[in-house]
């Protein structure tokens, strides 16, 4: 029986490659940076396959390097494969974007800390965090798989509704309402020991724009950090709303086309140092200023207005924190006074809206040009 070994990146909790018992590479995977990074492509048998996901973060299509569809998939709400086509070997299917790994024999899903069985819509072992997600420790995301996933196998990530995502018109405001939840007990020795802490979000913004729809693309990258102080809580869950607004094109009197992407990495730091499990440099946000907008070459990004800084806080990468979570907001526009003008916005996580963007960054975009 052939042996497959998996090369694992502990920092991102992602599979990087598969090798056989001799160490020869079977497959390689490319993910976006970050915890449970978004899967981009796999290389197997010298062939690249690119992943396309739906709103539930499940793989719906694989395409080849020449953009031809090679494989398609459909699933039930809880992850059973309803239909599929194509012959590409692919272990990342249901919730494949965040690393749910399908066993080719049992069809069970390996999800880091636990194994999930779609046929019965249950985990096969109890939650290591005991009843942190409710009274049934085998229950999968509180029986709400359309709105939630659980890439850690521990605690569900809660998707939130987003206003103004999907297909928009030039001059419309794209708006993501991202609500992230955390449990202030997770870093504590007992569920009754709550702590005071700080929620910090690292925002990475990439912008590619072509003004007047002609000439060279302009590119820009911007990184900043936002922080919310969180008082000691007597409740299990707390949530923070983090809205983002962007109008495409930013000035509707000017023609332009481009892509704006905002990726957020959110961590919760407990700064009560009475517990040895959370000993770390105290998260220090003194000197951070309340900021409501950020200027880029693509235009102005409006945020909620909290303390923020562009100076790298080293403790964000060194201090002990709870498991991070991520969000993505992407706006693609083509507003060039021609018949196929288009604006599309994508938000992850999200409810009910899914599209495969034909616009990618790095200044090269064969699909963005207007028709004749």
Task: Give a verbal description of the structure.
The chain is an all-beta fold and 372 residues long. The protein folds into two domains: 5-149, no CATH class; 159-348, no CATH class. Helices cover 1% and strands 45% of the residues. The protein contains one helix and 24 strands. The strands form four sheets. Strands 15, 16, 17, 18, 19, 20, 21, 22, 23 and 24 form a ten-stranded antiparallel beta sheet that branches. The protein has an eight-stranded antiparallel beta sheet with strand order 1-2-3-4-5-6-7-8, with no helix packed on it. Strand 5 (47-53) and strand 6 form a beta hairpin. Mean pLDDT is 77; it is low at 185-193, 273-281 and 350-372.
Sequence of secondary-structure elements? EEEEEEEEEEEEEEEEEEEEEEHEE
Strand content: 35-45%
Overall structural domain count: 2
Helical percentage: under 10%
Structural class: mainly beta
Silhouette:
globular
Low-confidence stretches: 185-193, 273-281, 350-372
Number of helices: 1
Describe the largest sheet: 10 strands, antiparallel
Query: Ends: how far apart?
Result: 57 Å
Q: Based on DSSP secondary structure assignment, what is the total number of beta strands?
A: 24
The overall pLDDT average reads 77
If you compute it from the alpha carbons, what radius of gyration comes out, rounded to the nearest whole angstrom?
22 Å
